[in-house]
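Standup notes
- DV: blocked on the single-chain target, sequence here:
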Amino acid sequence: MRDGFLNIKKLEIHNKIRTNSFACLGLLLLLNFSVFNKGGIVDQVLELKDSRELFVDHYLIEKFQGVTIKKHIPVDEGPVFNFDKPWEGPFCGYVTIIKDNDIYRAYYRGSQGGKDGNNNEVTCYTESKDGIKWYKPNLRIHTIQGSKKNNVILANIAPVPHNFCPFLDNNPNAKPEQKYKGIGGTDKTGLLAYVSEDGINWKELQKEAVLKKGVFDSQNVAFWSESEKCYVCYFRIWSDGGFTAYKGFRSIGRSTSSDFINWSEPEAMTFGDTPLEHLYTQQTSPYFRAPHIYVAIGGRFMPGRQVLTEEQAKKLNVNPGYFKDCSDAFFMTSRGGNVYDRTFMEAFIRPGIGLDNWVSRSNYPALNVVQTTPTEMSIYVNQDYAQPSAHLHRYSLRLDGFTSLSAPYKGGEVLSKAFTFSGKELEINYSTSAVGELKFEIQDDNGKAIPGYTMDDSDTIIGDEISKIVTWKGNKDVKPLASKAVRLRIYMKDADLYSIKFNQD
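- DV (later): unblocked, structure below
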């Protein structure tokens, strides 16, 4: 094996810091300090601290040799519950999943159809202890169809239930009675804000809409960003219509706030050098094991791309207006600001076998990825839209397993960009075959292997573990290198590396 890659190119400082007039405390600095090399040229050095890093983009990677970033396909775990109550129906949608300690909560629109934002739409609530088996409680909050025996939490406040989207507020300064926050509304009303102490009983935050400039004809999502230290909202705009007109492609805007009431002027999200597509839902949220990385697992809409014939649609009892298009799920990420990374243009979840999956506005993922076992996380997807069989489906992945650095049998290497870290040991999430392996080398900023942490010193790693500590001749202590600019050189053979993290304890 080589002692390192040669001729490491110098990186250009280009990070653009965005702020807003309402005292958002600052966006995440992806690259946040520099050092001088021997030639006097400034190299950017990433500051990882003790954050978990996933290989969902090229943020950490300087060079590949025989290694790729691989997107993994979620495993189909089957339906979890049907939208079968009289106040629910085939047009239930815009699902949000929240894990609050030991309780999993699901929120979604109950709808039998009709014009968007009509007063028959309600917000429904379902609960689970494990994220797998769900039950619909009789909350007795609203009288629906002559009875209070239902799971409705919002009613008779159109158009809010059309797309109401709550979140668990992780702002350390959030008021206890506002532990939960949520938004809903259309372009006619703007996004109206609601708050709750328990996630079930809600009240208006104020009469006036908190966000007014946007089209909002989809699920609009908000959350507290730990990395940017402000509230962030992602909402529907159209590519050629600015923030007000239905023209072009369905797209995404973003605004920030320090108090959830006063929001910055919206800005359109960018997608790099990729073709425009109808991104119907975007479902942007902080990944719970690495909240500085936002994952967006949304619904991609293909208008006019028809699979079903009229005869097939009638046989499935699909609503006549909802079988001449199709949809799938996509995966993209962001590290803050108005930039999405679309490294992966291919579908994240395909519609799958069965004509019932190939109808308009089906296969839209719910907001949020949640952990459901010690080694597994779950993604939930609306399926069989506009059909009597409409339901919520569950898919699973290993923890951190959206993507990985992946090497074939013949092996390969990865060289990281220069970075600093805090901590005393290097933890990895990985898998190999029986013949596969991983080895790690820590280099200085100039690409020279550091004695005691060379590739020859590295203990060979074989197996499949969510958490494994890297060692060099039995030594796991990397604290002497903390706060110094270093690089990782990784050798891989028939292996996948899902994440790395420098642990403090």
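- Follow-up: Residues 75-398 form a domain with the Tachylectin-2; Chain A fold (CATH 2.115.10.20).
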